[in-house]
Amino acid sequence: MRVLVTGAAGLCGTHLVDELVRDKEISKVYGIDNLSRGFPRKEEFVIGEQWQGKFELIVKKYQDLSVREINNLDVDVVVHLAAYNSAREAMETPDEYFVNNDYGTMKLLQKLFHTKKNPFFIFASAAEIYGKPVKEPVSESSAPTAMNIFAATKLAGENYCSVFFNWYNYPLAVIRLSKVYGENQNLVGYTSVVGNFICRALRDDPLIIYGCGGQTRDFIYAGDVAKAITGIIKARKKVCGQVINIASGKVISIEELARNIIDLSGAKSEIIKLPPVKGDYPGYLLDISKACELLNWSASTPLDVGLKRTINWHRQVMNLGI
């Protein structure tokens, strides 16, 4: 089996590639990434020797892939992870998010439709599309309500998938990811709350919380996401046309997360609370029963274990504490 991963040098992408190259059922893994985001000296950390021979990186925008190029790769599965993913940045640069996330996904689907093989397509959406759900735990049948441009672009991508599946019978599945963290996460520009807290903690800088800190999030380790996607690849006939939540199934408050990171990193940082930012939400618990049933999967990495790994990686990249 041959697999193409967009956004292969990103957080989820690197963990997925690492999972796939170790799988005996996968003969070749192609990654495409323009390396525009991430962290300094990205290539040195993500293109490991253990991948050589079975993995090939194509350095370009995924939107620039042609039908001929995809045909030449002869892949059986395309996992679409490439995306800009900051809600705050999306509100400041909506045009960029539309072009990269929304328009780019539609163009990729169009090209895949015109390939000889029509590889199975896995679209990585986000739990943010649920907005403010009225019932918890939030299942895949909950009505989506995009609260920001990022969520809107992901919801648009889901709608394109729905059209291609229902109109053209194109084989695909959609996954809705909770907050993913882990090694190789973005350190440049708009970073995740986990990345921001760790970077500040390793410098003993204050950890800034907007609002009371009681808002909750479901954090899932990128390695667990990679295992879930690998499960979808292997069960693609079974899950064709499905939308599946991929999450830990547990929530933690932002303040508790901050305190955990301070403790695990040995930082001397204090916590400072500022007024809440527009568009924030109290949080919600995702229902992962569908993933458990269809994939025989559940997240196996405890938060403290995943955070320790991520903190150690941050130390290496930032050249702190070593």
Automatic annotation (TrEMBL):
Q: Which InterPro entries does this UniProt record tie to the protein?
A: Epimerase_deHydtase, NAD(P)-bd_dom_sf
Residue intervals of the NAD-dependent epimerase/dehydratase domain: 3-247
Can you tell me which family this protein belongs to? Belongs to the NAD(P)-dependent epimerase/dehydratase family.
* Protein name per the record: NAD-dependent epimerase/dehydratase
User: Where does this protein come from, organism-wise?
Assistant: Thermincola ferriacetica
